Amino acid sequence: MYEMQESNLPNEEGKRILYPRIKLTGQRTLDDIAEQISHASTFTPGDIKGLVQALVEEISYGMANGQSVKIEGLGIFTPALGLRKGAERETGEPGAHRRNASSICVSDIHFRADKELVEKTGRQCQLERSEWKFRKSSQRYTPQERLKLAQDYLAANPFLTVKDYGELTGLLPTAAGKELRQWSEQEDSGIQRTGRGVHRVYIKK
User: Fold this and answer.
1) Cross-strand bridge partners of residue 194
2) Which of 26, 31, 136, 169 qualifies as a FRET site for 43, CA 20 to 30 Å off?
3) Residues 6+ apart with CB under 8 A from 143
4) With contact defined as beta carbons under 8 Å apart, do 61 and 77 qualify?
C-alpha cells in the first residue's frame, strides 16, 4: 500500500506537491527470515542466524579498517564519522583548536542498496493506493518558531542534521531538508551548512 503525502514546502511555481510513500505495516526480524529460509533449505534457523552474525562481524571489521563493504545483490556499507557529544566542531582557522581522535567517533553507517535488490523488490511489489489520507508535515510551529528551535539547538550542540531538525519540528524528512537549506542561504539566520552529500550537517554561523 502507498499513500500520497504533501510536501510542506512549495515547488518552484509556488504550488504544493504530493509524493508517494510506501505504507509500512510491520517489520520482519532475523528470526522470521531464518525460519522462512530453513523451510526451503537444509539449514536450521540457528545455522542461518549464526551465518548472518558472522557476516555482520566481517562487515563491521572491514569498515573499522577504513573500507567500504560491498555485498553483491545487497548493497554497499560505508562508515561515517562524527563528533562525540559535547565536542566542538573544528573551524580550520589559524590557531584554532584542532579535534583529536578522542573526540571523533563512528556516528553512523550509510547503506546504498544494490540496483539488483531495488529491481527485485520492485518486481515483487504490487502497489495499491491506500484509502488513508496523506499525512502532512506538522504545522504546530510557524517557520520562525522552527528557526528559533534550530538556533537554540545549535547553541547547545556542535551541529544539526536533517533528522535532528525533523524531530525538533515535526517536519517530514524532505520538508526538513529543504527548509534547513533555506535557512543556511538566509544571511541573518545564524545557520550555515558544511560537509558534502550524506556528510552534510548544519552549524552555527
Assistant:
1) 201
2) 26
3) 179
4) no
Other Cβ atoms closer than 10 A to 104: 14
Q: pLDDT tens, 74-116?
A: 999 999 988 887 777 776 677 666 777 788 889 899 999 999 9
Amino acid at 71: I
**135 phi, psi to nearest 5 deg:** -100, 130
- With residues binned 3-state (H G I as helix, E B as strand, rest as coil), the percentages for the chain, rounded to 5, are 40, 20, 40
User: What predicted TM-score, i.e. pTM, was given to this entire model?
Assistant: 0.58
Q: Are strands 18-22 and 2-6 parallel, antiparallel or unpaired?
A: antiparallel
Q: Cα(15)–Cα(57) distance, rounded to whole angstroms?
A: 48
Cell of 140: 504546530
How many CA atoms lie less than 13 Å away from 177 in the CB half-sphere?
Answer: 7
Kindly report, residue by residue over 106-146, the tens digit of the pLDDT.
Answer: 989 999 999 999 999 999 999 888 775 555 556 678 889 99
In whole angstroms, how far apart are CA 107 and each of 36, 79, 103, 165? Answer: 33, 8, 12, 17
